[in-house]
UniProtKB/TrEMBL annotation:
Protein name: ACATN protein
InterPro entries per record: AcetylCoA_trans_1-like (IPR024371), AmpG_permease/AT-1 (IPR004752), MFS_trans_sf (IPR036259)
Keyword Transmembrane helix: yes
Transmembrane portions of the chain: 6-22, 43-67, 87-106, 118-139, 151-175
BP term (GO), one: acetyl-CoA transmembrane transport
Keyword Cytoplasm included in the entry's annotation: no
Any one GO MF annotation of this record: acetyl-CoA transmembrane transporter activity
Pfam family, one: Acatn
Protein species of origin: Pitta sordida
Compartments, record wording: Membrane
UniProtKB keywords: Membrane, Transmembrane, Transmembrane helix
């Protein structure tokens, strides 16, 4: 109901903006970057054909493959191991002030001539935190008791998530700063939108693949059904 309500609000408000909001012709600069949708896509195509841009796009499309499983699957696996969903949701609350402060702090280090240095430095730590998340999933059934999970387990989870947020935002702010720095000011909006879209795609497709691979790569054993494989959902149901 919550998602349906805000989805409806989103659709209604954006539709009203599209119908009733008009461009102020007096404030449009003399030289526009493009004259329409066709020109915009031609411009985007000419940008992406540039060797440096093409190489950069290939790098950012593949740079987050190593984090995909940890980012996408950890929460689901913790729930599978018995951690209540509402507790995991509450653990996100302490992350909010951290998420507000981090960009302000990190931007000081990404404002120089080489913003991607922060991206490179954060990457190995984020990879190591993937192993830490795997440990949290493995550790969950070991510390679980009748009343749930001990406080120290939740403390370790919160600390792990906080460290993860630091590495995540270091990479995010660095890539945004780099995109802003290299974008041509004359077509800045189009240029930055292209690079940021590719950057977002570079984070989304590995997570989708990781989620899709969870079932095929999960080893299952059937208790009390000798010689019966549980490799697929249908077999496990039988």
């Amino acid at each position: 109901d919550f998602l349906f309500f805000w989805g409806a609000v989103f659709l209604v408000t954006t539709t009203l903006v599209a119908l009733f909001k008009k461009e102020n012709k007096e404030l449009i600069p003399a030289k526009e970057e493009t004259n329409g949708i066709t020109d915009t896509y031609k411009l985007l195509f000419s940008i992406i054909k540039m060797p440096a841009v093409l190489t950069f796009c290939l790098l950012i499309l593949t740079s987050k493959v190593g984090f995909s499983a940890a980012d996408a699957v950890t929460g689901l696996k913790l729930v599978e191991e018995g951690v209540p969903k509402e507790h995991l949701a509450l653990l996100a609350v302490p992350m909010v002030p951290l998420q507000i402060i981090l960009p302000l702090v990190i931007s000081k280090y990404t404002a120089g001539p080489q913003p991607l240095n922060t991206f490179y430095k954060a990457m190995p730590f984020r990879l190591l935190l993937g192993l830490e998340f795997a440990f949290l999933v493995w550790w969950a059934p070991k510390v679980k008791h009748e009343g749930g999970f001990p406080v120290y387990y939740y403390a370790v989870v919160v600390l792990s998530y906080a460290l993860h947020q630091i590495t995540l935002y270091s990479m995010y702010v660095a890539i945004m700063a780099f995109n802003a720095k290299v974008s041509d000011p004359l077509i800045g909006g189009t240029y930055m939108t292209l690079l940021n879209t590719v950057s977002n795609l570079g984070g989304n497709w590995p997570s989708t693949v990781a989620l899709w691979l969870v079932d095929p790569l999960t080893v299952k054993e059937c208790a009390g059904a000798l010689g019966h494989a549980c490799a697929t959902a249908e077999a496990a149901e039988v």
